[in-house]
Amino acid sequence: MEINHTNLYSNSTNNEEKIKQVELIKTVLHLKHGVIVEEMQITHLIYAPYSGQTVLHIPLPNERSENIIKILTIISFAAKIIEMISLMRHHRNVNIFFIDWEQPRKIIDYNINRESPHTSLKKSYLKEKYSYGGCKSSERTGEKIQSRKNYINKSQLRSNRRSSTADDDDDDNRECSLPSKEFCPSFIDINTSSSDCDNLKLNYCSVSAWRTCFVANQWLGIKTRRKTNIIFQIAATLFILEIVGVKFWALAIPKWILVNQSNSKTLENFIFQYAIATGTFIFVYSVQWFLYTLYETYIKNCLQEFVDLCSVANISIFILSHNYLGYYIHGRSVHGYSDKDLESLINDLESEKNNQCAHRGLVPGTCEQMFVVSVSKTFRTFYDTILINALNNRNVGKFTRRFLLNKNNWNERWKTRSKLHEFFCSHLDHCLKHVDYTVQEKRFLEKLCDIEFTNTPEKSIFYIDKNYSFNQTIFYGNEWTLATFELITFLFVLTLGGNWIICAGATLLMSKLISCIAKIDQKKQLAAKTLIDKRFLI
After folding, report:
1. Do 275 and 335 sit in the same domain of this protein?
2. Which spans are transmembrane here (predicted)?
């Protein structure tokens, strides 16, 4: 199927313009962090000298100063809402695909009766078995084997004819920007015969889909997982403010007092409340962060456990967070198969523990399983070509997989997923000449600035990653954004005149609301991106 070069170019240009606009908005929104820091510094610089004096010589801040702090807080909250919407939208547009490396196993059908003796289907089974005019089961098995051999010979002849007609001398002169029929893999052809797949099912045991569904559900589980617990954060903050009595530090009294002054007629000052709220909230959050860092380092790392699960399940994950940037988790099992009984799985893990087998890394002899991927334009073109051919749609920019989700034609959906699976497998195994990749480490300056300077027009580059960079596509890697949003929400409600309990309740409600929306939306998006039925996602 031909591709409109003009449409592809115009759509890519439009995407680049959109990316520039989004990055500009993000740059402007990052300025709010500086505003927040300045607000906290100003309030603490006003609060500390006044509360520490024993002789009154520093007056209270005037109303004009309070109004400036309130206006800046409202502006910061509005900017934070926009940032959260941008984060949710970015997570929504992330493309992800689960690559199942499990191969079908060859089986021989001996026509063994597997029907239950307590069912009435046994009679129909026996009737079907002996209704071939005296033909023995061995003869029927031989016919099946012969037909399979004929099918394999025919498929080999077809592949040889295609390979013999290809002009290898002109490969170097072809354009790499768009895939042509000469070097396009055969799985891109949408006119795939369904009868060929049916013939294979007669002789091979199909690969179970439960491993893919299980890994997909685990991915959904860590999508909204965070380094801190918002319930503990709010409860500890309220405990310190209300029970310990730190809230009385916000009274307009020129010294620190930890006694109950509920009967005092002295009013609380807003700037002092602001300083106490930020200090308490940040203190509790810092304690949580420190404890979780120790727990993650010495006890349990949920991201590493997920990577190990991918290795046991024999499933890799390819994530495209941007048009030409993404992440790859190599989960290909070193044992070949993972669909085994429990004893075999335990023996495989023991052999890995005792270094009696190969390493799990993408490169033979290495252990690196996580990569930051900078894909080439050729890779992206191949990827889009498969999707365009599947949908008979020339417009790449407006492509979404909602069409496949709404279609009742499961055959078309399965063919598209099979082509994507074959494309990723062939690419990772270096089977595609014009869509290849190299593995390398980032330079010192690239690690320091967290940016890639290498241009990838021809080959994709897999940068070795040891920092779990794929967490940028989940809440786990955006903890700073979420934590500052909760802090600003707390201060925003305080600005509107709420007490400590109302501020805590509103912050908890907003955090849980965002988490709930993300779970519902990401379940739908995961089904759309991976072409897995959402009924199998929990």
Report:
1. no
2. 230-251, 271-294, 487-509
